[in-house]
Amino acid sequence: MALHPTDFTKCCKDSGILMVVKCRKENSALKECLTAYYNDPAFYEECKMEYLKEREEFRKTGIPTKKRLQKLPTSM
């Protein structure tokens, strides 16, 4: 059965301090997944365009994306 990258998180939670020894297989699967994305030119371009859009919006408003997306209180 193929490992899923989220298996590493579960393994670490279940193993506690012994995760370094017990989760090597899951860590390798996670590294392979991340490396595949890191080397994908289409994914790089997608991330770059998202970053540039957020940067442009910040330069216009001065408000970071995280703060801009927070809900405003409904009652004042």
UniProtKB/TrEMBL annotation:
Domain of life: Eukaryota
Lineage, uppermost ranks: Eukaryota, Metazoa, Chordata, Craniata, Vertebrata
Name of this chain's protein: COX assembly mitochondrial protein
One Gene Ontology CC term in the entry: mitochondrion
Keyword terms, alphabetized: Disulfide bond, Mitochondrion
Recorded family membership: Belongs to the CMC family.
Database matches in InterPro entries: Cyt_c_biogenesis_Cmc1-like (IPR013892)
Signal peptide start-end: none
Residues forming coiled coils: none
The species this protein was found in: Monodon monoceros (Narwhal)
PANTHER family: COX ASSEMBLY MITOCHONDRIAL PROTEIN, COX ASSEMBLY MITOCHONDRIAL PROTEIN HOMOLOG
Location of the protein in the cell: Mitochondrion
